[in-house]
Specification:
The protein has a domain of about 35 residues. By secondary structure, the protein is mainly alpha-helical. About 60% of the residues lie in helices and about 0% in strands. It starts with 12 loop residues before the first helix and ends with a helix. Helix 2 crosses helix 3.
Length: about 100
């Protein structure tokens, strides 16, 4: 005899919201808390001329602080570099593996 498996219908966002609200005060419905340690901030020294240029650009972009502007620029650059790295890895590693 053949049995068929019925896939569960995914819950809608509204159904999930209702379940969460209904179980919000029931501690047994939740997994134990996880303690997450934030990574400590680091300091980076910049040469004076580079720092002055960063201050100028931060003012030009009307950010509240040069630190905010630098973090934004670094985040943009990291996103771009990671994207390029992923493309290169996807495109060239299989080609290189065939050669060896």
């Amino acid at each position: 005899m053949k049995t068929t498996k019925h896939a569960k219908k995914p819950y809608s966002q509204e159904e999930i919201d209702h379940m969460v609200v209904a179980q919000a005060d029931d501690d047994s419905a939740w997994e134990p808390s996880i303690l997450v340690q934030p990574t400590p901030p680091i300091s980076v020294s910049l040469p004076g001329e580079l720092a002055a240029r960063a201050v100028f650009m931060a003012r030009l972009h009307r950010t509240t602080s040069v630190e905010e502007w630098v973090v934004h620029i670094i985040q943009e650059r990291l996103d771009m570099e990671e994207s390029i790295y992923g493309e290169v890895k996807r495109d060239f590693i299989p080609k290189f593996a065939k050669q060896t």
